[in-house]
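Minutes, project check-in
Item: structure for the 163-residue chain
Input as provided by the requester:
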Amino acid sequence: MATVLILMGSQSDWPTMQKAAYMLKDLGVSWEAKVVSAHRTPELLKSSMEQAEKDDVKVVIAGAGGAAHLPGMLAAHTSIPVLGVPVSSKQLKGLDSLLSIVQMPKGVAVGTLAIGDAGAANAGLLAAQIVGSFDATVRQRVTEFRNQQRDKVMANADLELPE
């Protein structure tokens, strides 16, 4: 059983949402990814959340573009934390997705990340941090990841003009 469930509205969202999966994989957090459309498969959406609760999934990452109703609709069907990733759209470059995900009504919470690849990767990282709040091994991996990032910056901190 997966610790984190990654859902997206269509297969075209997978290139972006893979960034979440790679982050989770690198941090040793089990995950599963599926396509579930809020508009085209509403019954599957509901049954997916019921199954996630039975499977003791700890975090759901939901990527959606355009109208981007998926994260909010998932959150309406579960008490599992839902992290929303706005997937960039052709028409409005993901701004429409961002606004759709971030503007949740009071009482239905969705944690919203940045548009696109950075948001997906950070959703994976944030999901790992949530899991790390009760799993010391994952927390240690997140700490090591953060230390590696710091060391990389520090190793290249001195800047000079080219000659």
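Outcome recorded: The chain has a mean pLDDT of 96.
No further action items on this chain.
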